[in-house]
Design a protein that fits this description.
heterotrimer, A alpha/beta, B mainly alpha, C mainly alpha, A: alpha/beta, Rossmann fold, B: 78% helix
């Protein structure tokens, strides 16, 4: 399988006059064609910032990419100019936003909103009739009757709106689809429908996907790989099996799952992690999870842990240092 | 939609009756009796008595109100105590002037305010934002008569390019227009700016950008269309205010508009003039606001849907 | 114990609002400008008495600005600087009292309308519709004509004409809490209506009312000046800014300073307060911050 996306040591900060927020602190991951990676973590872990950085849609004035590379199809997106980025957005990389209630322009009919994506990237290839036909086709694809293309967003339910958002994202058949908590804002029953549909479409179109979520159930259903994020870092990364079935885990992942058998004898079921995420304007010196970690040692508070990898399963924690050496 | 408009028209009636009652009470509380204003200082006691009797001034207040309203139903606005001219005839001269003034001033302020507002929002924190915004804040704090006087000083007194009063030629409207556009334009500009800034932050704008849109499409096709909705409402409101509230500018440049007409009536306790003027003004105001709501419904499908539901 | 806690919580809230407020350069500028205006208004007598500002002195008429007369003198030889700072006093007193009065009237009307609902509410709101069917300045002129020209009546007239905006805002804010359980609970528990309105509804309406209140003061300054300019404001010979300009307009061709200075006074006063108002709005409503 060939590599589609490789993010290397990405650092993103939000800078205002008053404070600097360290949103993403040196994350690296890669994604092959046709694969889906899940970015898992609590709110504020830097998942959405990562997604917006991939599209280079950070707020212009405050969002700063300090370091790193985003290699997409062999091209470093951080060196692409504005025009090139516009060509990539929507056509090569598309995004599904979290809240379908606010993600659609309220004063434009949905058909036109889908059409726009095609028109921006058309460059004279398709005639108007072909574009209209394609809009109807993609609406049917996401389960909306083509006759509703002249309806406004407010005429659709939440689940239907998210289908429209997905249609906008898929209309150009992008190589990479970033889905930012695509089902969080929906009712539970609708969540399952939308998720199944996304999975089917991904498989049919062969799209690679970054699934941003805090719901481990979704990860188990759709992802091939998982990256667990905490305070702007990837603390653990591996295949779905590594994360769900393996017996070596970052203490944060353990906490996230509540309890995983074998890792720790005195683990209880549904054990929430004590404490809160560290203040992103003032991260701890050592491991950022150390203030909440049940295995915290003095070293953890002083020294940032290195990444320890065994068979592609990497964990960034001092606990696993010996294991790798031995 | 039609049902909604009809309902709104019906709702205007109690408001207009309320306005007539309020203004009737107020203007009748103005100290002195109408005759002393209408006949001047050298009128005899008999003349005053005769005049007051002729207008029914000695009837009790409710009777006078009732009589006025009865005439009003037949569209008879009565006769001015002072000028002895029918109020209807006077209104047919004043109202068009007020409408022209209000309309051109609002059109001008939108032409200036919207582009500048969009520009400063898009270029937030740059000089293109800071300069127009600070100018607008200062202009919004300047009294209209002072701006008007300075314009008069420059263009009429120093250079004699334009006359400082009157409405005989279209270009004589230029100075009062400039005054009003400076004030209302800066108001519309600040509103457009804050509305744009609010809209640009919305999720759907990110969706448009993620589709690969150019900034031009993002700003003009998506953001502006949404940001204009509150601007339309404010423009309608300002139009209504200008119809009767441009008294200061009207007085300064001697424009014989509705506002000055009413204020002169108030000063002289000219009941038919004040009543006729205010009721016409309130009715016009209500029509303008209704028109704005209809325009709004066409600009925003969500609002239209709400009206349809209300039926 | 809980009271103390509440107090410290409130204090830290106020601190946070102040911190956000002074972060804005424009708001800080507004405070500085307003402090200057306030200083001259309060200590106007240090520069010359009110009598001096209205006493004619034909010998010194039409003087242009100099070290002795900073803003020059007018057609009666009165020192314009003195007139302007005594004008600041008049303008601030009238606009503040009119704003406070209309805020109090409007907030009471709005909160009670939301709380009692029913016929009382619709009557109140229709009354406000009637008030706002006529432009504010026209309504204020009608009121002042009916009440008779005096400073007190001017304040009442301007306050009444601006009551509807406060009523609507207070009602809107109050409606968001009126239906909530804790208010129903307090009602069932026999808490008096007045107490419920003061303890539960008023805190909710406070922020929007304060924002409207500040914005209103600068409109009041402008309206007060406009009414004086039209000869319907504070009776002559009080040195109201609008009246000074009105008296000067006949001489402005040769002595433009007579128009410039009082006009700049109005701008600075109105500007300082609207800058403070904008700053307060942003500080009280962090949702709008970028």
């Amino acid at each position: 399988m060939s590599e589609l996306l490789h993010v290397k040591d990405l650092v993103v900060k939000y800078k205002t006059d008053l404070e600097t927020v360290s949103a993403v602190n040196g994350i690296s991951f890669s994604l092959n064609k046709g694969e889906t990676i899940g970015l898992v973590g609590e709110t504020g872990a830097g998942k959405t910032t990562t997604a917006m950085t991939l599209l280079r849609l950070l707020p212009e004035r405050t969002g700063k990419i300090e370091r790193g590379e985003i290699i997409f199809n062999g091209e470093n997106l951080l060196e692409a100019d504005k025009k090139r980025m516009r060509e990539i957005r929507g056509e090569k990389i598309a995004m599904i936003f979290q809240d379908p209630m606010t993600a659609l322009d309220p004063v434009m009919v949905v058909g036109d909103q889908i059409k726009e994506a095609l028109v921006f990237h058309n460059r004279g290839k398709l005639t108007n009739e072909q574009i209209d036909a394609r809009v109807e086709e993609v609406l049917e694809l996401v389960g909306i009757p083509a006759s509703r293309k002249n309806d406004y967003p407010h005429q659709f339910s939440g689940g239907m709106k998210q289908r429209v958002v997905i249609a906008i994202a898929l209309v150009c058949e992008p190589d990479l689809l970033i889905a930012d908590e695509p089902t969080t804002a929906l009712d539970v029953t609708i969540q399952a429908q939308v998720l199944i549909m996304m999975k089917e479409l991904r498989d049919r179109l062969g799209t690679s996907m970054i699934m941003i979520t805090h719901d481990l159930g979704i990860v188990a259903q759709v992802c091939d790989k998982v990256a667990v994020m905490y305070a702007g870092e990837i603390v653990e990364q591996g295949t779905l099996e590594d994360i769900f079935a393996g017996d070596r885990h970052h203490p944060y992942t353990v906490g996230l799952f509540g309890a995983i058998p074998n890792i720790n004898d005195d683990a209880e079921r549904l054990n929430p992690i004590d404490g809160l995420m560290p203040d992103p304007t003032n991260l701890p010196t050592g491991c950022s999870f150390s203030p909440r970690c049940p295995h915290c040692t003095e070293r953890c508070t002083l020294e940032h842990p290195a990444v320890h990898t065994v068979n592609g399963h990497s964990i960034s924690c001092h606990l696993f240092e010996k294991e790798v050496e031995g | 939609m039609i049902k909604y408009v009809l309902k709104r028209l019906l709702m205007m009636i109690p408001v207009l009756i309320g306005v007539s009652l309020l203004i009737f009470l107020l203007v009748n509380s103005v100290p002195g009796d109408p005759a002393s204003y209408a006949l001047g200082a050298d009128a005899t006691a008999e003349q005053i008595q005769a005049f007051n009797e002729s207008i029914g001034y000695y009837d009790p207040l409710p009777v006078r109100y009732f009589n006025y309203m009865k005439d009003l139903l037949r569209f008879d606005f009565g006769t001015s105590y002072v000028s002895r001219l029918p109020v209807m005839g006077e209104l047919s001269v004043k109202v068009p002037i007020s409408i022209i003034v209000a309309f051109t001033a609002i059109a001008g302020s939108l032409l200036v305010g919207i582009p500048l507002g969009v520009l400063s929002a898009v270029k937030q924190y740059s000089l293109l934002d800071v300069i127009p915004t600070s100018m607008a804040i200062c202009l919004a704090s300047a009294p209209s008569f002072w701006l008007g006087l300075l314009l008069m000083l420059e263009f009429s007194l120093r250079h004699q390019w334009l006359p400082s009063f009157g409405v005989e030629k279209p270009w004589w409207f230029i100075l009062p227009m400039l005054t009003l556009v400076a004030i209302y334009g800066s108001n519309q500009m600040r509103l457009t700016r804050s509305s744009m800034l609010e809209t640009i932050r919305q999720d759907y704008i990110s969706t448009v950008r993620a589709k690969g849109a150019t900034e031009r499409v993002v700003i003009w096709r998506h953001a502006l269309k949404n940001a204009l909705l509150p601007v339309i409402t404010a423009a309608g409101n300002n139009f209504g205010i200008l119809l009767g509230g441009a008294i200061v500018t009207e007085t300064l440049f001697s424009l014989p508009g509705l506002g000055t007409f009413i204020v002169n009536g108030v000063k002289q306790k000219d009941v038919p003039v004040v009543m006729g003027g205010t009721i016409t003004l309130a009715a016009l105001f209500a029509f303008v606001m209704l028109a704005v709501d209809v325009i709004y419904a066409f600009a925003d499908p969500r609002v239209k849907a709400r009206y349809k539901k209300m039926k | 114990m809980t009271d103390k806690k509440e107090k410290t919580k409130k204090n830290s809230q106020i601190k946070e609002i102040a911190r956000r407020f002074f972060k804005s350069k424009l708001a800080t500028l507004g405070v500085i400008l307003f402090a200057i205006v306030l200083f001259f208004a309060i200590f106007a007598n240090l520069f010359g008495s009110y009598e001096e500002s209205i006493t004619q002195n034909i010998m010194e008429k039409f003087q242009t600005p100099s070290a002795e007369h900073w803003f020059g003198t007018d057609n009666y030889g009165r020192d314009l600087f003195l007139r302007c700072i005594h004008g600041a006093r008049i303008s601030l007193i009238i606009s503040f009292s009119a704003s406070i009065l209309s805020a109090v009237l409007g907030t009471i009307a709005g909160m009670t309308a939301a709380y009692y609902g029913g016929k009382y509410e619709s009557l109140m709101m229709r009354l406000m519709d009637v008030f706002s069917a006529v432009p504010t300045i026209l309504l204020a002129i009608c009121f002042v004509a009916a009440l008779g020209a005096s400073s007190t009546n001017l304040v009442i007239a301007m306050a009444l004409a601006r009551t509807p905006s406060f009523t609507r805002i207070a009602r809107g804010a109050a409606l968001t809490v009126v239906g909530q359980e804790h208010i129903e609970a307090a009602r069932c528990g026999g808490t008096s209506d007045l107490r419920i309105i003061l303890r539960h509804i008023f805190p909710n309406a406070m922020a929007p009312v304060i924002i409207t209140f500040t914005g209103n003061i600068s409109s009041m300054i402008l309206q007060n000046a406009s009414m004086s300019f039209l000869g319907l404001g504070v009776p002559a010979p009080a040195p109201e800014w609008g009246a000074i300009i009105s008296g000067a307009k006949g001489f402005m061709r040769n002595f433009p300073h007579m128009v410039w200075f009082p006009g700049l006074c109005i701008i600075i006063a109105a500007l300082s307060i609207s800058l403070i108002g904008d700053g307060l709005r942003d500080a009280l409503d962090p949702r709008l911050k970028s």
